[in-house]
Write a structure and sequence with these properties.
With 109 residues, the protein is α+β, with helices and mostly antiparallel strands. It is 34% helix and 28% strand. The chain has three helices and six strands; from the N terminus they run ββββαββαα. The protein has helices spanning 46-52, 74-85, 91-108, and strands spanning 8-12, 18-22, 25-28, 31-34, 60-65, 68-73. The strands form three sheets. Strands 1-2 form a two-stranded antiparallel ribbon. The longest helix is centred in the C-terminal third of the chain and has 18 residues, at 91-108. The chain is elongated. The termini are far apart.
Length: 109
């Protein structure tokens, strides 16, 4: 007797071969939709975990943005912060340059 997994159901394909479909996950090209379950739990789909090399025990950071929620590892989050800060220049240097240009304008008056 075959035991069915409760989270799976099958739907027939054109050739009559049943195709497993997950109830709480839907794929739309490179977008994966998952449903929030009891206690706020979301199962990260295996293709997503495999693609990002997230294994059991991996700590993930959730960043709430106006356009949505970003999910990344702590290492990826630190790298993103460092990248956003590089090339930004020193705030002190910017303030000094601004003050010098204001002083030069005042001296011309």
């Amino acid at each position: 007797m075959t035991q069915r997994v409760p989270t799976m159901r099958t739907r027939p394909q054109r050739r009559g071969v049943p195709k497993p479909v997950r109830r709480n996950m839907h794929c739309m090209s490179d977008t994966i939709v998952a449903v929030v379950g009891k206690k706020g739990r979301v199962v990260m789909p295996k293709p997503l975990r495999d693609g990002h090399h997230w294994e059991e025990g991996t700590s993930l950071v959730f960043i709430d943005r106006p356009e949505g929620v970003l999910v990344m590892t702590r290492t990826e989050a630190l790298r993103a912060v460092r990248k956003s800060l590089t090339g930004a220049g020193s705030l002190a240097e910017e303030l000094i340059a601004e003050r010098r240009s204001e002083a030069a304008r005042e001296a011309k008056r």
